[in-house]
Write a structure and sequence with these properties.
CATH topology of the largest domain: BirA Bifunctional Protein, domain 2
CATH class of the largest domain: Alpha Beta
Structural class: alpha+beta
Distance between the termini: 35 Å
Helix content: 25-40%
CATH superfamily of the largest domain: Bira Bifunctional Protein, Domain 2
Strand content: 25-35%
Number of strands: 28
CATH architecture of the largest domain: 2-Layer Sandwich
Length: 572
Amino acid sequence: MTDEKRIERLSAMLKRRGIVLPAFEIYGGVSGLIDYGPVGASIRRRVIQNWVEHWTINGDIVEIDSPTITPEPVLVASGHVGEFNDLMTQCGKCSAAFRADQLAENNHPNPEILEANEIDEILISNEIECPNCGDKNWTPSKPMNLMFGTKIGAMRASRQAYMRPETAQGMFMLYPSLYRHFRQKLPFGAIQTGKGYRNEISPRQGMIRLREFNMAELEYFIDPENPPVIDLSMKKEIVSFIPDPHGEDYKEVKISFSEAIDQGVMKDHTVAYFLSRTLDFLINVGINPSKIRFRQHEGTEMAHYAEDCWDCEIFGEHGWIECVGIANRTCHDLLSHEKHSNSNSLRAWREFDEPKTDTKEVLAPNTSILGPMFRGKAGLVLESLKQLDELPDNFPFELQIKDGTKVEITEEMVERKTIHTSIAGEWFTPHVIEPAFGIDRIIWHILDHAYEETEKEGEKYNLLRLSESIAPVDLIVLPLFEKEGMGETARKLNLQINQIKGVISSIDSSKSIGRRYARADEIGIPWAVTVDHISLEDETVTVRRRDDQKQVRTEIQLLLNLIRLGNVSSLF
């Protein structure tokens, strides 16, 4: 069977079981928008919760939450208003719009890095057909900004704003508060999860390219002269790396993280550390480690703010897809926001190992002469004298003051002095390491990797081998029959399980027990607990394991204790 048909069956199952569905379907749907149903919303919440706990466990990273509506000046400073574009082209016959690089992807290894004229040449020379009507006549490619515009306020008093294309800028805005929270000590980080918005030209591939999507981003602030010391020698797993070929062919290397540093495949220890933490998270939530690789951006592909960037790509039914980007954003964002906001609050203090002595020549004012001479402008003259970077060789000289005028300074107005100052440290702009996760893309690959099709007793059977930590519910309680007290006992047990902190249980009494097992397996519930006639006599139940359908009889009280300990698997 073809991969395409497997995708169709998987998508149909996701829709049927309330995991992922088209949004606004009764109105024909909207491309690039999806709904998470009751089961899918639970999986999504648990994936995000796993992500939050993964990054905050060490205490150097905290969670914040900022608005999804962003004023235009913030996104001008970040570069999104000017730089956040994709190249668009239209079919000359049917006027359908497409991302130009997507049309060229079968004729170039990485069309995203190409300029408009280069993509146009590929479309023309290869006679690329319109996916909509088959015509080969294309308009010249041109950039289209991907942000959704909106307004803050009403009528003429309204301000231009945008739905945020990323959560990062909210964390940069909160940097002064974070710096205080961490007692003015680097390194530290902030995470944020939530919605992002990009007005994709031609959304496709289901959950892979959406107009409204779930993001999870981390901004980790470091001193570039004193980056965190990270020992990667314990990371022994072999990982697939594709470093920037610098004009040559891409070559995949399979080595450990420590070997990647030693061999120069990766030069930034901090970026390497966040790649390793990213790998740990993905494996923990159920991504197949053999289908993960890290690809470094080419120089021409790099975002405008990045010094180094690696994509974590995951292989699935759509091929290799970027699901995480880990970038060294340097100090670009903080410097730019300082410049555009006229603020100096986005810095950190670095103490020297030993105080330094700064020797400087200054012109000390003779106020008894300057005051009467300049009267109301005397304060401006004094301030301008303090800010002189280069002292004049001769007198008199002209001094530019803040009101835009010039005054003449004579030798008797000032005295040349040498000042020695002890300096304990200096202000600097932190650098930022950013892992940015596309949660929807990760969930798609979790579902893709977990989905299995098999046959049982001549019937087709679907199984979703989800990691226990992200399953929609932890257990399902199944009364063998809804009579003779079995239903009542099952509901009592379900209530007892749900009263255990952090554990979610559900109950299903509809149709045959075999059908109910199949439904539970199809949405990835790891444990099924069956209440039968014997349960009424000796307070025991049957526990069934999803992955191999093995069953064990156990006492209800023992089961409850094992659930509290998170160790149901010890029964088997």
